[in-house]
Amino acid sequence: MNITDVRVRKVAKEGKMKAVVSITIDEEFVVHDIKVIEGEKGLFIAMPSRKATDGEYRDIAHPINSNTRERIQSIILEKYEQAMAEEPAEAIGEL
Question: What does this protein do (predicted)?
Fold first, then answer.
């Protein structure tokens, strides 16, 4: 599996969510709405999820092992850092 494209949409408003990301896998499959979150231990990603009838959030799409999750997270956070370096914060529009 190769991530062939990463699109970062920065979030300007205050809060823990810093960006929303879409990735393309093998130029054939896209996953939208991956969130970049600022946590107590630094940045991490949250896969797209939906609120279930019991009030819990459940991932809609997600990696099935930790190595794949780490690889996806590493690529996304690298692209996020590049996007942050390219554009000053005051020029970022709200989503």
Answer: Could be involved in septation.
Neighbours of 9 (CB within 10 A): 14
In the chain, the percentage of residues whose pLDDT exceeds 70 is 91
pTM summary value: 0.84
Taking Cα atoms as reference points, which of 81, 69, 78 lies closest to residue 1? 69
Domains of the chain and any CATH numbers: 3-86 (3.30.1120.40)
DSSP state for residue 47 in the 8-state scheme: -
Closest among 14, 17, 47, 44 to 33, alpha carbons compared: 47
